[in-house]
Design a protein that fits this description.
Number of strands: 17
Distance between the termini: 50 Å
Largest sheet: 5 strands, antiparallel
Structural class: alpha+beta
Radius of gyration: 24 Å
Number of helices: 11
Oligomer: single chain
Length: 414
């Protein structure tokens, strides 16, 4: 591999190793070695003295006839790697889930050695406590690291993506908050799409995400007057509220003032239109589950059909299901409850004496650094709590609850 094909931001860093495939307990493993042209010695991703320069790595690669280069992520190094792997994917081409993440992060992206995966390299850091693995779909896996691991570097750059690492901290934190939501705080859950008319779905969207309304009315100012960016933003909201129902999201988009003839123009060699491509890129990685499911549970009393809720968030649910129809987390009487299977019955226990939903996502920058903030609407029973604004990077830690709402706000581990 030619050094010119390595991202410029990595060329001068002494964080390089070389590797070859070896059999370990019956499994083919890419084993890292020190970039030492004189002798072949194994490297450790935890020991910087076993890493070296790109120049030495290239010499060692050729001299020892090894299989490839590797870049090690160092603590505090400011480089994050996202590994998307679809070796077990039964479809053709790049899975939509992987393509969506590559498009959202929009930094240097290259093929993995197998060409059944890709690596995204960007400038940033992982919030403390971030999980490292996630299954996006059957056969499609994600891993993310900023230390303690190395990535193979092939130089097989994805055309159309930046040829160097980009600053993507805000985008990364927003993606991680979506991929790894905190279990005790379910997000806003709309009523199942099939139970709502189009007008009711839009009313629900505008209530939960107020910034969607200006887009619906054709206002592109939040996106610098860029009509295409505004299209993508509204498409993302519509795919979210419809549970990734592309046909319904398309029907709703056509009712908005952003709709224009370009929506139906062919923009892909396979015949897909601009609108189809936009909606496919806007897929929600974590679409919301029906809020009606929150009323199908047993074990506690609360608001029932036909009766007013104790708080506006009653009936929200999230975290998957304990059993079909029984959500793992729900809101009842303005408090979060967790379901557990006991003696073949789902029983709910209180996790917090409050409930909250994210109502708005705010991007903030000082021109050098950027971050994502969440605005939250909270209730303690029927009593509304003050509006809370929380950094995306600290959202999962839950330490902000007492800071924003006082010592009376209690969240129990569970």
């Amino acid at each position: 591999m030619l050094p010119l094909r390595v991202p410029p931001a990595l060329r001068e860093l002494s964080q390089w190793v070389v590797w070859r495939v070896e059999n370990r307990e019956g499994k083919a493993t890419k084993v890292p070695y020190q970039p030492n042209p004189a002798r072949l010695v194994r490297a450790s991703t935890g020991n910087p003295s076993t890493w070296g320069s790109l120049e030495n790595a290239l010499q060692a690669l050729q001299g020892h006839k090894l299989e490839g280069l590797g870049f090690v992520f160092a603590p505090g190094g400011g480089v994050v790697g996202v590994d998307l792997d679809w070796k077990g994917y039964e479809g053709q081409g790049v899975p939509l889930e992987a393509q969506t993440i590559a498009d959202r992060l929009n930094s240097y992206t290259e093929w993995s050695p197998s060409r059944k995966g890709c690596h995204i390299l960007l400038r940033g850091s992982l919030p403390q406590g971030t999980p490292h693995r996630k299954q996006l779909a059957p056969g499609v896996e994600l891993e993310v690291y900023d230390r303690g691991r190395y990535f193979t570097v092939t130089g097989r750059h994805w055309a159309g993506y930046p040829d160097d690492l980009q600053e993507r901290q805000a985008e990364l934190e927003a993606l991680l908050a979506e991929l790894f939501p905190p279990a005790p705080m379910p997000g806003p859950q709309p009523v199942a799409g099939l139970e709502l008319s189009d007008s009711e779905a839009l009313e629900t969207l505008f209530r939960l995400v107020p910034r969607a309304r200006p887009l619906w009315e054709g206002n592109t100012s939040e996106h610098g007057g860029d009509h295409s960016r505004a299209d993508m933003a509204l498409a993302s909201f519509l795919m979210w509220i419809t549970g990734n129902d592309e046909a319904r999201a398309d029907r709703l988009f056509r009712q908005s003032r952003l709709y224009r003839p370009k929506w139906d123009e062919r923009h892909a060699g396979d015949g897909r239109t601009y609108g189809q491509m936009t909606l496919q890129k806007a897929r929600a990685l974590e679409p919301y589950t029906p809020r009606a499911a929150g009323r199908l549970s047993t074990g506690t009393t609360g608001a029932t059909e036909g009766q007013p809720s104790a708080c506006p968030l009653d009936g929200l649910s999230g975290g998957g299901f304990v059993l079909t129809g029984y959500p793992r987390y729900r809101v009842r009487a303005g408090a979060i409850e967790a379901g557990k299977l006991e003696r073949e019955q789902v029983v709910y226990y209180r996790l917090a004496n409050l409930a909250a939903v994210i109502t708005r996502e705010v991007a903030r920058t000082d021109g050098v650094h950027s971050e994502i903030l969440f605005e939250l609407e909270g209730y303690a029973g029927p009593r509304p709590l003050p509006l809370a604004r929380v950094r995306a990077s600290e959202f999962a830690g839950m330490g902000w609850v007492v800071r924003e709402w006082g010592a009376g706000a209690v969240v129990t581990p569970g």
